[in-house]
Every structure is written in structure tokens, then in C-alpha cells.
Amino acid sequence: MNISDEIKAVRFFNNLHEKQLSLKKQKGKVLNYTANLCRHYYKSEALIKKALKKPSKLHYEVIGMIRLGCYLIEEDPQNTPKIIHHMVECIKPHHKWATSIVNGTLRNIVRNKDQWSQDMALSDKYNVPSWLFEKIAHHYPLHFEDIFNQWNQPPLHSARVRPHVNRDKLLSSWIKNGVKAHAHPHRNDMICIRSGAINELPGYQEGDFYIQNASALDLLEKVTLSEKALILDACAAPGGKSIFMADRWPKASITALDIDNKRIQKMNENLERTKLSIPIHCVDATETKDLLTNNYYDVVIVDAPCSATGVITKHPEIKLLRKEEDLKKVTEIQLKILKELWPKLKKGAQLVYLVCSILPEEGEEVIKKLGKSNNFTLEFSKTYLPSSYYHGFYGCIIKKPTHH
After folding, report:
1. Residue 168 and residue 230 in one domain
2. Residue-wise pLDDT tens for the chain (404 aa)?
3. Does residue 51 contact residue 90 with C-beta atoms inside 8 Å?
4. Are residues 204 and 112 in the same domain?
């Protein structure tokens, strides 16, 4: 018996929630369904609790199929009867006893969702956990609706075209191959992609482009470096920043660090594909010991581990997997990395700090804490809110004094 993509998605969603997995493990329709189960989880959960007296008593696959039906009906209300019938047919081979429950519950939700939505918590309406809703609404009172709406959109991927390649010719070849793509409106070295398997695109195997968001590139371009600069890229894997720096400063010497062997393996694959040679060491950036020399580097790049709230559009599972209590631990790690690597900078050199988070406690507040024990000049600091063409993130550049 073939297992439907819908059931596969529901099963993976359950494991995702239970085992802290990543959507990267799935492809095609299963990925699409699972991502949308994550994006629309909180609203569908609120509706299901209204429609069912004891939803926790039902098998998770039954609840999952109802949840998926809620999302599909919301997206395509004109085809509501077909969607309900399809959900019933999907559950029938696995839980025949539940067909009437799936059918009845979805019809109940369709009849009453407008009324039930009026009493729904704002966090559920926007499909955000309550703790994260409160933080974002507090920090961005004029923009929180735009942020939440952006989080619930399917992502737009972007590719940076490398310097030796003509962007327009590459884009033309993609379009001829049926790829939905267009030129990035703000960068002349990038292409935006709506569809297509990345590793099957013309130029992928040749290393003609690298998939990365424009956000960090705008920040890295603000760095002031000599031609043969010494660059340290901490938390470097899977390699996007190192590859960008190597393309922009080809005579520079780059050293990369990362703590995760699997990510290092991926970085080595990316370096091989892009025909670059960058040494990468498997080391904890909070404890580099004797690996690195003090007063040595012209720039240190710290893309620190974080809550990843800036990339929820791309990774909607983050809304389910992150907890408020995680923030204390991750901010401690961020500060510890900065304190460990600060002495490695030459006098007058720059440190670039960035996190894929829009929460101030992971951005400017960490830099303020670093400033309590270290003297520096803040040359640039900005929180980028998520938009169609940019991930959300915080980035800053701080400069070490030329004299003590």
C-alpha cells in the first residue's frame, strides 16, 4: 500500500515536534505539507480545540489530517467540499474508524470558524506562540503584523552569482529550463528562485552560484579590509560567508571554525564545488585554546548560534521548537564567543557580529554586555526585519581601539 504524502507529512510533523528535527529532511509535497502544518499550527489548533471536546484522545494522525485540512481550506475555500473528501480518503486506509470524525470536524470548523475566530487569541490568529507574539509586538509595535504575515508566507530563495559568471545569462538559462526565477531587485549579483531543485539548476555543479540570503552580504560589504587581510570566520559552516569573503577579497587568508562535524562536511562539499580552499577547524568557538593567535586577525566574523527568529519564513518549525527559556542559554553562548574571540583581533581591526534573530536580547543587548568589559567603537548596528527579499537578522561592526 502506498502511503500518501499527506500522511507522511503528518507523521514527520509529529516527529518534528517530538524530536526537534529539521524540515531539511523532507522534499517535495511532503516538505510543502509539513512546512504549512508548522506555519498554520496555532490557528488550526485553536479551531480544533473548539470543534472537539477531547482532541488529545485522538490518534495524532487523525488530528494531523484535520489540521492539514484546516490549512488547505483556508488557502482554497472554493474547493472546501473536495478538500474535506480528500482528507477523508487519505485517512481511510490508516484509520477507517476516524473517517466520520475527520469529515464531521472539518465541516464543523467550516461552519463556525468565523465566529470562533472572533474570540481567538491574537497570537493564534497570527500563528505565533504566545511568548514570541508578546516579544515581537512589544519590540516592534508598528511592524509586528507585517513580521507575522511574512513568517506565514512561503520563502523566496536567493542565489548569489559568483564574480566570474554573468548573472543575466545564468538567469536566462534557468528560465529556459522552466525555473521560476527573477533578478534580485536590490542586488545585481543575485537571482531569486520560486521553484526548482537547487542542485539540478544549470551552473550548480560548476560552482557558478551559491544559495544565500542578501541580508548578511549587505553587512559584510561594509567591512574595511586590505587586499591580503587575515580573516577569521567563526561558526562558519556551511560556508556562505567564507565563500563570499573569498570571492570579494581573493588574496585574503581565511580561517574557518565550526563546532559541528556534519556542517563542516557540508562546508567542505561547498568549497569543493566552488573550487575554493579554506582551512576549517572543528572547534568550539567559546574555547579555542591555543588554536588561534592573539592580536592576529584583521577581521573576525561571528555568526553566532541564536533563536533563528529572523528566518522563520524559511524554517517555520522554529515557531514550534523554540521556547522562551532557550534565550537565556543562547545569549550566554553568544557573549562567551565574543569574549573568547575579541583578543584575536589586531588593534584597529573590526569584528562583525550577526545573528539570524530579530530579538534585541540576542543583538544589541549582547553587544552592550561585551562593551562592559571591552573598549570598542560601534561603527554600524542594525536590525533587519524579515521581508520578501531579506531574512530578518541583527548585524553590527565594532572596531578595536588602535591604542589601549
Report:
1. no
2. 467 888 888 888 888 766 666 676 666 788 888 999 999 999 999 999 999 978 778 899 999 999 999 999 999 999 999 999 999 999 999 999 999 999 999 999 999 999 999 999 999 999 999 999 999 999 999 999 999 999 999 888 999 999 999 999 999 999 998 899 999 999 999 999 987 678 889 999 999 999 999 989 999 999 999 999 999 999 999 999 999 999 999 999 999 999 999 999 999 999 999 999 999 999 999 999 888 888 899 999 999 999 999 999 999 999 999 999 999 999 999 999 999 999 999 999 999 999 999 999 999 999 999 999 999 999 999 999 999 999 999 999 999 998 76
3. no
4. no
The answer to whether 356 is a known catalytic residue is yes
Kindly state whether residue 317 falls inside one of the protein's structural domains: yes
Domain count within the chain? 3
Domain co-membership, 9 together with 112: yes
Q: Which of 71, 99, 120 is the last residue of a domain?
A: 120
Q: Give the domain range for residue 225.
A: 214-399
Same domain for 221 and 344, yes or no, is: yes
Catalytic residue, from 38, 192, 306, 356: name it: 356
Backbone Cα Rg of the chain:
23
Single pTM value for the model: 0.92
Give the helix ranges, DSSP H, for 317-363.
318-321, 326-341
Among residues 123, 114, 118, which one has the least CA distance to residue 144? 123
Contact between 61 and 7 (Cβ < 8 Å): yes
- Same domain assignment for residues 352 and 245: yes
C-alpha cell at 11: 507523521
